[in-house]
From TrEMBL:
InterPro entries: AAA+_ATPase, G_ENGA, GTP-bd, GTPase_Der, KH_dom-like, KH_dom-like_a/b, P-loop_NTPase, Small_GTP-bd
Gene symbol of the encoding locus: der
Binding positions (GTP 2): 189-196, 237-241, 302-305
Protein's UniProt keywords contain Repeat: yes
SMART domains on file: AAA (SM00382)
Keywords annotated in UniProt: GTP-binding, Nucleotide-binding, Repeat, Ribosome biogenesis
Organism: Neoroseomonas soli
Annotated protein name in UniProt: GTPase Der
Upper classification of the organism: Bacteria, Pseudomonadati, Pseudomonadota, Alphaproteobacteria, Acetobacterales
Molecular-function GO terms, alphabetical: GTP binding
Sequence positions that bind GTP 1: 9-16, 56-60, 119-122
Record keyword GTP-binding present: yes
GO biological process, one term: ribosome biogenesis
Length: 450
């Protein structure tokens, strides 16, 4: 097991900036406003020869448990229980606060090793300002400026000393076809649809901060987990996506950008829809975006326990999907109640089934037998009075399933015939709910331009 290094501190001391600097890539959203980070965020990192799991946490604040700040603190305390080393960050520009002193006393009572990080100590006066942190009783403060990349060498040395000698062997990242390679799963949807509640229900723990307030999740939060099949899953909870015209705040723009990045890196996307509100145009936009990115999609129809007329609600959803999401015909819909856990056990089997179809390859022989039958049943139409002669088909790749069709003027096929081929393929090989790509490759006459 790799050691876990947890970054703690009150809001706006630079924890997420330090997290990004140690992870050597921009993962956490950073802004000047306090309280941007609300959920703990994990990333693999290599510090002074050690492979570690680095954890960014929400700001520590004294607050009642039923408030957002209180739930943020509970999440940070949960991270602390799994820590092998704590980086306690203070802001030397603003000086020590009563909160810094209270949380330092809390850490002293724990048995965990703690490194005291005096952040924002750039420039000639920075090191002197950092000395104030001595009074916290957590050892020598390490003066750094995460934003300006100053003092990080000393921090790396201190981490190496705290963790001891690194292991000699290095574990390689599993290959794409390795069964131990985690399935990359993103949970997306509108604000307050229940995405974080669903992630907590899947994990069986209060991993994400939840509540009635919309927009609690601001960043894309990744968690590794094993589902009921024993397979590894890299779950990513994302910020809710509103209509683009309504997004004016810079922080929300960064949140949506993180969501889009998570969606592009995913293999399967779970679109969480509020069953009480039904599937609206924004849900459809998100589903179409996932389809354009070539991701398998499963719909989690959440808050199903609160729906009164279930038959009518199902019928409305079916009508919307048939009329507006034909490119994902047959998409799997799992009614569930994330808050109570009812029906959640049916979600991962649906995800695994969609993932298997998304990875499925059809042999060239099977494909061309289907292709010939499809052409016989419905020959391609003439284009501008000229015949289109389709010769054969291949499947150059899966993830998503992709059909390449070769023939004279194949690229001129009208859109309705392209849809016919895709739908016929989907039906013949039982591939509901996954995007299917059709590539048309014509044969060029070398004398046509002479």
């Amino acid at each position: 097991m790799t050691p876990t290094v947890v970054i703690l501190g009150r809001p706006n001391v630079g924890k997420s900036t330090l997290f990004n600097r140690l992870a050597q890539r921009k993962i956490a959203i950073v802004d000047d406003r306090p309280g941007v980070t609300r959920d703990r965020k994990e990333a693999p990192a290599r510090i002074a020869g050690h492979d570690v799991t680095l954890v960014d946490t929400a700001g520590l604040e004294e607050a009642p448990p039923d408030t957002v700040a209180g739930r943020m603190r509970a999440s940070s305390e949960a991270a602390l229980r799994a820590a092998d080393l704590v980086l306690f960050v203070v802001d030397v520009r603003s000086g020590l606060t009563p909160s810094d002193r209270a949380f330092a006393a809390w850490l002293r009572r724990s048995s965990l090793p703690v490194l005291l990080i005096a952040n924002k100590a750039e420039g000639r006066g920075g090191a002197a300002a950092a000395m104030e942190a001595f009074e916290l009783g957590l050892g020598d403060p390490i003066a750094v400026s995460a934003e300006h990349n100053e003092g990080l060498g000393v921090l790396h040395e201190a981490v190496a000393e705290a963790l001891g000698e690194p292991r000699d062997e290095e574990e390689d990242e599993p290959a794409a076809d390795d069964p131990e390679r985690p399935l990359r799963l993103a949970i997306v949807g509108r604000p307050n649809a229940g995405k974080s509640t669903l992630l907590n229900a899947l994990l069986g723990e209060e991993r994400m901060i939840t509540g009635p307030e919309p927009g609690l999740t601001r960043d894309a939060i990744a968690v590794e987990w094993r589902d009921g099949t024993g397979g590894r899953v890299r779950l990513v909870d994302t910020a809710g996506m509103r209509k683009k015209a309504r997004i004016e705040d810079r922080l929300e723009q960064m949140s949506v950008a993180a969501t889009l990045g998570a969606l592009k890196e995913a293999e399967v996307v779970v679109l969480v829809v509020d069953a009480l509100l039904g599937m609206d145009e924004q849900d459809l936009r998100i589903a179409r975006l996932a389809e354009r990115e070539g991701r398998a999609v499963v719909i989690a129809f959440n808050k199903w326990d609160a729906v009164e007329d279930r038959e009518a609600t199902r019928r409305r959803l079916t009508d919307v999907l048939t009329a507006s999401l034909a490119q994902l015909k047959g998409i799997s819909v799992v009614p569930l109640a994330a808050l109570t856990g009812r029906g959640v056990d049916r979600l991962m089997p649906a995800v695994r089934a969609a993932y298997a179809l998304w990875n499925r390859r059809i042999t060239t022989g099977e494909l061309n037998r289907w292709f010939e039958a499809a052409l016989t049943r419905h020959p391609p139409p003439a284009v501008d009075g000229r015949r289109v002669k389709l010769r054969y088909a291949t499947m150059p790749k899966a993830r998503p399933p992709t059909i390449a069709v070769f023939g004279t003027r194949a690229e001129e096929l009208p859109e309705d015939y392209r849809r016919y081929l895709v739908n016929a393929f989907r039906e013949a090989f039982a591939m509901p709910g996954v995007p299917i790509r059709l590539q048309l490759r014509g044969t060029r006459n070398p004398y046509a331009e002479e």
